[in-house]
Structures are given as structure tokens and as C-alpha cells.
Write a structure and sequence with these properties.
This protein is 28% helix and 22% strand. The protein has 303 residues and is α+β, with helices and mostly antiparallel strands. The strands form 5 sheets. A 3-stranded antiparallel beta sheet has the order 3-4-5, with helices on one face. Strands 6-10-13 form a 3-stranded antiparallel beta sheet. A 3-stranded antiparallel beta sheet has the order 8-7-9, with no helix packed on it. Helix 2 runs antiparallel to helix 3, helix 2 runs parallel beside helix 5 and helix 3 runs antiparallel to helix 5. The longest helix is centred in the C-terminal third of the chain and has 19 residues. It is flat, with a radius of gyration of 27 Å. The protein starts with a strand and ends in an 11-residue tail after the last helix.
Length: 303
């Protein structure tokens, strides 16, 4: 029996059958209890080992707590059909794009089903080229996120007054035009503002798209928004630094808001590579083969 992976309260071992595993778990539990006796005299020994799952196939990534496999036995029952499961991969995130979820999930399923590198790489190369050529619908590459009030709130470090980022589009200093005869009550530059926690504010990706929409459109955001990385020559003003920035992300509330956008297809094509990277690292495969479609099989092919 060989330990292949362990994390927190779970351990994965290589073993030949469910029956052998059921015997092994009792032997291991007995050994652990012998080395760590119930010195507190509890009704039950504090060490309770459980045999939860049997994987007919398991792929383990190079990053901790990242694996995928086919479960054929679970909680005392033999499954009619092996069940695919994965842990630690971004495909499980609600905020991820449909494109990224589908590609990573499909590649992982091919991996644990022991498909050859040539087949996996062809699938990924085809996806890469399809996205790069722009042959995908915006709906599969648009991300959704929540507009959290805390993320949109900054404060003046001098007087602790709080501002919504949208308010800063029209002011340069704290308390601007609020005093008698237009005299500033504080006067601290908004470029010195911090987050509620006192950290330097960061404006990027989706939030930058929301700010751009506030300045350039009449879109009204509620508690969530959609955003897309685009190729665009228009600009927006950073509400804190007051610097003019090129628009890299567009934000909206419906897919219709993106009908006239030109997505950054190169960026999204690289997401195909990124989602496959955990598999290629675990197998020591050449990740560049996804972009080229060519798999190096001999030393001479490097030259």
C-alpha cells in the first residue's frame, strides 16, 4: 500500500480493491489507536478512520489539494457507473467563464480516463484556435461578479470620511465644495484615499469596467455585473489617481451591452492553456504544444 497524496484530514493510498481497503482501514485504525491511546477515558476513541471513496482512477496535481478522478465506490456502496469528481480546480468556481469551466472539466475527464497525450492535446489545440479566431459566442467568455459595497468604498485617511468610488468621478479632494463659500472641510487629495482596512485601493478587471461604464454609459448596476476583456482604444479616468487609462474591460448587466464590443480573443485563448496547465505540469508535458499543435517526441525535434 502506497500513500500517493494527503491533505488536512484525508489521505489517498494506492490499493488494489475495495475489499483490501476495508481490511486495511481497520488495521490502520487499530495501529493508530495503539500508538495514541485514549488517555482521556472518552466513551469513544478520538481517532475514527473512515473509508469514504474508492477511485478507479485518480490524477493528482502538483499543487496541494488539487486532484481529479473516477469514484467507483462511495460510502459503502458500489456505484453503477464511475462518478467523475474534482477538487481544487477553478472549474468549480461560480465566477469562472463557461468556456473555462467546460474546457478544464473536459480535459480533466480525458486525463482520468487515461486518454493519450495526442488526443488531449488535439482537443485543447482545437479549442485554442477556435477561440483565437473569434469563433465563440460572447456568452461563454463573459464573467459574472457581485458588486460588493465594501469593495466600492474608500476613505480619507485624514478625517476617515467614506466615499463610494462613483462619487469620486466628480471630486479631487475630500470635502470638495462642501464648506462655506466652497472652502474644503478637509482637502486631502483623493489619490491618498485608502480602503476601509487602510490598504492601497486596487482597481482592475471587472471593477475598472464598471467605473468606465459609469463614466461613459447610462448603464445602471444593481448588486451584480458582467464583464469582458476587450480590444478598445477609448479611455476612462481612474477616480483615485485621475489618470486617463485605456479601457481594457467592459462591464454591463446583460449580454446585449456587449454586442458592439471586440473581445480580446488572444487573452481568452490563453485561458485554454492556463486551464490545462495543472494536467501538463503533473505529467511533465510541454504546455507550448497546445498553441502549436505539435508534440515533441524526440530530442532531434527540438532543433
Amino acid at each position: 500500500m502506497k500513500v500517493v497524496y494527503g491533505h488536512t484530514d484525508s489521505i489517498y493510498v494506492q490499493i488494489d480493491s475495495v475489499e483490501t481497503a476495508e481490511i486495511a482501514i481497520k488495521e490502520i485504525e487499530a495501529s493508530v489507536r495503539e500508538h495514541f491511546p485514549n488517555v482521556m477515558g472518552l466513551k469513544e476513541h478520538p481517532v475514527q478512520l473512515e473509508f469514504e471513496k474508492y477511485f478507479s482512477a485518480l490524477g493528482v496535481g502538483t499543487v496541494r489539494n488539487r486532484n481529479a478522478g473516477l469514484v467507483s465506490w462511495e460510502d459503502g456502496k458500489l456505484l453503477d457507473k464511475p462518478k467523475f469528481t474534482m477538487t481544487g480546480f477553478t472549474a468549480k468556481r461560480v465566477s469562472e467563464t463557461k468556456l473555462a469551466k467546460d474546457i478544464q472539466t473536459t480535459a480533466l475527464k480525458m486525463w482520468v480516463n487515461q486518454k493519450p497525450l495526442t488526443e488531449i492535446n488535439k482537443y485543447l489545440t482545437d479549442c485554442y484556435k477556435t477561440v483565437l479566431n473569434g469563433d465563440v459566442d460572447n456568452s461563454v467568455i463573459i464573467k459574472r461578479s457581485r458588486l460588493r459595497k465594501k469593495r466600492l468604498t474608500v476613505k480619507c485617511p485624514e478625517c476617515n470620511r467614506k466615499y463610494h468610488l462613483k462619487e469620486l468621478n466628480n471630486i479631487r479632494v475630500c470635502g470638495q465644495e462642501e464648506g462655506r463659500d466652497g472652502i474644503h472641510k478637509c482637502g486631502n487629495s483623493v489619490s491618498n484615499f485608502t480602503t476601509i482596512e487602510g490598504k492601497r485601493p486596487s482597481i482592475g478587471s471587472g471593477i475598472a469596467g464598471v467605473i468606465s461604464a459609469w463614466q461613459n454609459t447610462d448603464i445602471v448596476f444593481d448588486d451584480s455585473y458582467l464583464y469582458l476583456k476587450v480590444i478598445n482604444h477609448h479611455t476612462y479616468i481612474n477616480p483615485l489617481s485621475k489618470e486617463k487609462r485605456r479601457i481594457e474591460y467592459m462591464a454591463g448587466t446583460t449580454y446585449i451591452d456587449f454586442e458592439n464590443c471586440v473581445p480580446d480573443y488572444k487573452h481568452y485563448a490563453e485561458q485554454v492553456v492556463k486551464k490545462a496547465e495543472p494536467i501538463y505540469k503533473a505529467m511533465s508535458w510541454d504546455i507550448s504544444a497546445i498553441r502549436t499543435g505539435k508534440i515533441q517526441t524526440s530530442l532531434e525535434e527540438w532543433f
